[in-house]
Design goal:
Length: 417
């Protein structure tokens, strides 16, 4: 809701950052031209879904694979088709983070810093360029947060539809990967906590109707995304099988799997002890690599920012800073209890995005307070983030490398090779 003291929305700047992100994510998107890492699961599943042939890759809901199939329908069954929708999802995350920070702080500078951190965080860049599910799930979660935050300060006549939009987006997130399900509960808890402190939040929306809408709409949206399965040529889904199929998915996701060379424990992800080589081989005429790790300045510095936001929130009783810290804590802590037999660093994708929000929030809080040799620390930090992105670009973008030992140049820790 715009007020006399609220600056105008920086739509042009947000659009420019989004366009730059889309360009960067799409540049050389077809490199490599073969499927890499978990594309081996999701691209074939998307092909089957395009034909409505039969159920496959049944450990996950349909929506993420349907989005990959959409790209393949538009651009063909090739590297561009497999990955183009992932670039759109990543750009939505960049713009969504900009919007979240602007709504929280009403400063374009803070929002721009957060969006740029997202762009230059290796995890976002890499997941933008591969046909996997996590990028879509994260995009729906971020956009849901945008909708729910907009509803919080909207005129009464707009609150309901924006709250419902947020509920739909959360349902779509869960329909991509189940790991988004806790965010439905987090949204409910946040609503109750904020309303207790600020009765003007979400004007006209009472707690019981709000929670009923959140739960009903998100669950209904989730189940509606299974509609294509009712039209399979073989083994079509029926209404009577819809709930038992969820139990089958749960059994698939919690089964005991054999060990994997890139598996890692949840506690190690913030330290980036075991990243993942999505690709390292000779392909398309050169040795190429894609190493999934995060930008060290964001991944490690972001932990300090989360701790600082938590401390500021407790000291000042600020729900804003507590909520920012809570986004990372909530998205990360679930992995300590999720009953999966194997863990992988890419599960840390969504928390890595929230680190960018925490860093931008800390920059806003300390703006003008820390200067060294006449240089503002926040610009210096953005420069460091950008420099690291440029340094690591060859092994996060599948660029041609001079030889098969070139990767050693970027191996900072003994556990990275």
């Amino acid at each position: 809701m715009q007020t006399a003291t609220t600056p105008p929305r920086p739509t042009l700047i947000a659009s420019g950052i989004g366009a730059a992100a889309q360009f960067l994510f799409t540049l050389n998107l077809t490199r490599p031209s073969k499927v890499v890492f978990d594309e081996t699961h999701y691209v074939p599943a998307a092909r089957v879904l395009m034909k409505l042939a039969y159920p496959t890759n049944t450990e996950h809901p349909l929506l993420g694979k349907a989005l990959i199939a959409t790209g393949m329908t538009l651009f063909g069954d090739n590297a561009l088709g497999w990955r183009i929708m992932s670039t759109v999802a990543a750009t939505a995350i960049v713009i969504g983070v900009f919007a979240i920070l602007w709504m929280l702080f009403h400063r374009t500078r803070t929002a721009a810093f957060g969006a740029l951190f997202v762009i230059f965080n290796f995890t976002v860049f890499i997941q933008a360029r591969i046909g996997m599910l996590d990028g879509f799930m994260a995009a729906f979660v971020i956009l849901a947060l945008v909708a729910l935050l907009r509803a919080m300060r909207s005129p009464p006549e707009k609150v309901m539809r924006r709250w419902m939009l947020g509920s739909v987006l959360l349902g779509l997130a869960v329909a991509t990967k189940w790991t988004a399900a806790p965010f439905v509960a987090y949204a409910a808890i946040a609503f109750l906590v904020v309303r207790r402190r600020d009765a003007a939040a979400w004007p006209g929306l009472r707690p019981i109707p709000a929670l009923l809408i959140l739960g009903t709409v998100s669950v209904a949206t989730y189940f509606l995304t299974f509609a294509p399965a009712f039209f399979y040529a073989e083994e079509p889904l029926t209404l009577g099988q819809l709930i038992p199929f969820q139990l089958h998915m749960y059994a698939q996701q919690t089964q005991i799997l054999p060990s994997h060379p890139y598996q890692s424990s949840w506690w190690s992800w913030p330290l980036m002890i075991r990243p993942i080589w999505y690709l390292y081989e000779k392909v398309d005429g050169a040795v190429r690599g894609i190493l999934l790790l995060g930008n060290p300045a964001i991944m490690w510095g972001g932990l300090v920012a989360v701790a600082a936001c938590l401390a500021i929130g407790i000291r000042r009783r600020s729900l804003k800073f507590l909520g920012i810290a809570g986004l990372w804590i909530g998205s990360y802590a679930i992995w300590a209890v999720i009953p999966k037999s194997l863990g992988f660093f890419y599960y840390y994708y969504l928390p890595s995005i929230f680190l960018c929000i925490a860093l931008a929030a800390l920059i806003d809080h300390r703006h003008g307070k820390w200067r060294y040799w006449g240089l503002s620390w926040d610009w210096a930090y953005l420069a460091l983030v950008t420099l690291l992105f440029v340094m690591f670009y060859p092994i996060i973008s599948a660029a041609a490398l001079p030889n098969d030992q070139a990767f050693l140049h970027w191996m900072w820790l003994p556990s990275w090779p």
